[in-house]
Design goal:
The chain is an all-alpha fold and about 230 residues long. The chain has two domains: about 60 residues, no CATH class; about 160 residues, no CATH class. It has twelve helices and no strands. The radius of gyration is 18 Å and the shape is globular.
């Protein structure tokens, strides 16, 4: 069953990618459409989700190495990144600060439970970072994973179209926005746009994870005092 689950997931991914590359429509987002195809296939074949879990767990274990693998395009494009270092650092810093502060503000405004707030803080970083932040400071890893996936999916589906709508065409700026706001899923979509966008998004995703990790303890202390 594990082999079938992996084959089903890969087949859904390649089909979704082919459709996106052909039509370039935001709703044909590779992650969203691929997950939908897998879910529909499981329902039609009457395969319970529990039977799919071993394949999912194995593929999830590769998420960390895949994130580390982004170092390859970063190294190959190190001169490009060096030229734009000030803009990249400023963009990631402001984007990350906006993300975590908006969560703190929302928590104060609607009086969210502490566990939910702690799980929301790392919503814009990739899952390995988010789970470690939640493990160190409290919160629910299940909730954190759900928030991360939801943020990445929404950002990867609508992020590119929104940037185009507001006139952001520069590949560096697009990569920064997608990597900082939508972590791995945004980075994957950025690579489909171009090598520059994807490389910058990969660096932004990593820097956003580090910055969020550093900001989380401070914000948590402030929330506790509030």
């Amino acid at each position: 069953m594990m082999g079938f689950g992996i084959s089903l997931t890969l087949g859904a991914y390649f089909l979704a990618k082919a459709l996106y590359m052909k039509f370039r429509h935001p709703l044909l987002n590779v992650v969203l459409l691929g997950a939908t195809l897998v879910a529909v296939a499981l329902l039609l074949l009457k395969i319970p989700y529990q039977a799919y879990l071993p394949a999912r767990s194995l593929m999830m274990s590769l998420l960390g190495p895949a994130t580390v693998g982004l170092a390859v395009p970063l190294y190959r494009n190190r001169q490009l990144l060096s030229r734009h270092a000030p803009a990249i650092l400023a963009g990631v810093g402001l984007g990350t600060l906006t993300s975590v502060v908006s969560v703190a503000w929302l928590a104060a405004f609607v009086a969210l439970p502490r566990e939910v707030v702690l799980s929301l803080l790392p919503k814009s970083v990739t899952i390995p970072f988010a789970l470690e932040i939640v493990r160190l400071h409290g919160g629910s890893q299940a909730l954190a994973s759900a928030f991360v996936v939801a943020t990445g999916t929404l950002g990867s589906v609508f992020g590119g179209a929104l940037l185009t709508r507001v006139g952001v065409q520069d590949p560096i700026a697009r990569g920064l926005a997608m990597g900082t706001g939508s972590h791995g899923q945004g980075t994957a979509m950025a690579f489909l746009e171009g090598q520059e966008q994807g490389t910058v998004a990969g660096l932004a995703m990593t820097l956003a994870g580090i910055t969020t990790t550093l900001l989380a303890p401070l914000l948590i202390r402030l929330l506790v005092k509030a």
